[in-house]
Design a protein that fits this description.
This protein has 2 domains: about 100 residues, Homeodomain-like (Arc Repressor Mutant, subunit A), CATH 1.10.10.60; about 150 residues, Multidrug-efflux Transporter 1 Regulator Bmrr, Chain A. The protein is about 40% helix and about 20% strand. The protein has 10 helices and 8 strands. This is AraC family transcriptional regulator. It comes from Sinobaca qinghaiensis.
Length: about 280
Amino acid sequence: MALVESLQQAIDYMENHLLEHITIEAISRQANVSPFHFQRLFMILTDTSVGEYLRHRRLTLAAQELYNSNTKIIDLSYKYGYDTPEAFSKAFRKQHGVSPSEARKGTGKLNAYNRLTIQVNLKGAEPMNYQIVEKEAFHVVGIKKECPCGEQATGIAEFWEQVNSDGTTGKLVELMNSETKGLLGLTDNYNEEKNTIDYWIAVEHIGERPGGLDQLDLPKAKWAVFEVHGPVPTAMPEVWKQIYSEWIPSNGYEIADVPAIEAYTDPEPYRAESSNQIWLAVK
């Protein structure tokens, strides 16, 4: 249960410092995981990014204060972290569907985002097939793309379509010459300012980096390797959620600060019987 408790501690920290400028580094320290893994964990369990949660909560409190006080809109703008009343009004309208002045008059309905409380299912009704693998340092070669996180998380599916259509996947498959098989999807390098991650499509490769491709080095680590059965678009997210909400809280492992891997080992990832893997470094 340590992960659940530390995640709730991080949420409480955010709530206690909503009116301050807080960083993902400071928040993730409360959960004792890296900023990258905290953002990933938070998104999988809550379906929103840390930045979006903070923004939603601040605008929820701003709406309450706007309706229940005579505080000037310009003062509320600065109080809730906006440099100008115009920026505040734009964000306010995006969330609530009305302007701050309309909300003060009682026009329209407001959209409130309540404080999060993490609840984890530990029943373990669905069995999880996994193994623990000790693996020496290795590297992958491929291509990467900066993709947005959270509500605007687009680009990864299009990225796969691109590499499948332009022959890149065929080139990568030819470079597979080690024990980790299949095309690999990795997320790395979370950028708090832009709310983006680097998404890699790669393969494990022994030898020099081929021209035209990037290389990502992964350290020696202990990996929990989970089986994923079913069509990738639905099965992969379901297993990720099960890992974070059930497996980690009920086992003695912590998440290591190493990029996680989705291994697409089945040549037909959309079929009902498709079999693939998730590799999560643990300690």
